[in-house]
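Record 1 of the preview.
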Amino acid sequence: MLRTTSQTQIARRLAYPTAGAPPSQHGRPSACGHSQLSSRQACALQFARTGFGNFTRRAQRWSSSLSTHNEDTPAQTKKRTSNSYKISTFKPSEYSVKDILDMSGKPRRRFSFTGFPKSDYEFRYKTHGPTLRRGDVQRIPFPPNSIGIFYFHDRTSVHPVAGDIRFRVLPMDSVKGDASIDTTDLFARGHDLLDHSGLRPWRVSLLSIMSRKPRDLYSFMKAHGHITDAAEMQIQSLRSTFPSRTGSGSKEQIVEQITDPFILDLSKTAESLIFFHKEGIIPSGFPTWQAITKRQRGVETSSGRGTMVSYTGTVLVRFEVIRQGIQSRVVVRVLKYIKPPNPGDAVVQEEGELLKKYNPIDRVEVPWVARFIPKFLTPSSLKLLEEAYIFKGTTG
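->
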């Protein structure tokens, strides 16, 4: 925290970090133009001359950066924890009125967890920017009317690491005075808060919680049964197979079951996905540029040169399989547009149809069909797709 200090005092402290140290008489010319002073001394004096306001803003950014990267002292941790809000449960069936929070307009808020006195965790809505060190990170606050509870959206029946913490917006305007509140009904009538893109729920994935530090949130969820031994084994397997991907799950899309839909930006070259399989967790990029060949205007073959024109828009898709002879081939079906294509596009993907690929030789659109079983697809997940789209209704 910055103290109220005069410009001269600030300049002297920067120039002479050791009390009573005299200025050097043999300093080299500095960036601020003073040959008789050291670079640090001269620039400190320049700060005093050019205005304290600019320096204060820089110092505040440096202070913010340091507080982000440096470890807190025990006293700092105790102070922050004592001022934080408390979460007692992530189970929707167990929350009470005192657990309801107003996150409206707050970019972040610190929490401690019941039963863990020294716990400290920060929930953020959206943070982005070039670097933390430069202090130019933009923190986007929670939207208006973000009144509700954090809860665990449990999908561990699908996979041990499936699930995430979400924020349930509750219809508090329907609560009248001091009347007793049916929290179960209130939760059922609420809705999950969307993330900044507006395309999917705001969430902190269980994979991210188990993969990253600090461990306060992990410890609380482990104690309450949200993290199982089977989940621990999956994470250990991920770390041994993909040691460079131990921090996964915060930005990538997670496909918890191969039949689940996911979002595909048609203009991107690849989509970062993490697949949950019975055999393990596999991070992979879906190569959109291979599935959807860019169209070339005025060129008859793919070897020619011309203006590259890609498909546009964002779509909700899912994997399916079709039968070609005795082989199962993976395809992608477009379910619906989330962001429409550009108005000037001559050819677009069609809702309800298979994802199309442009053939630059014949200048026609043909469904994309994987020639080989993709590396991210395991035998158990391929079997799920076959049961859903090939053998459906033929057995039992």
